Amino acid sequence: MDLMQDKTHEHRPPRPAQSPAQSPAQAIAKGTGTGKGKIEDISQIVRQLCDLLTRENAALKRHRHNEIQAMTERKEQLSRLYQGHMNNIHRDPSQLKSLDPAKRNAMAQSAMRLGDLMQENASLLKANIESINMFFKAITNAVRDQQEKKAAAYTSDGAMNAYGLTRRNLAVSFNQTM
Question: Where would you tag: which of 25, 64, 132, 164 has the fewest CB atoms within 10 A of its CB?
Answer without folding.
Answer: 164
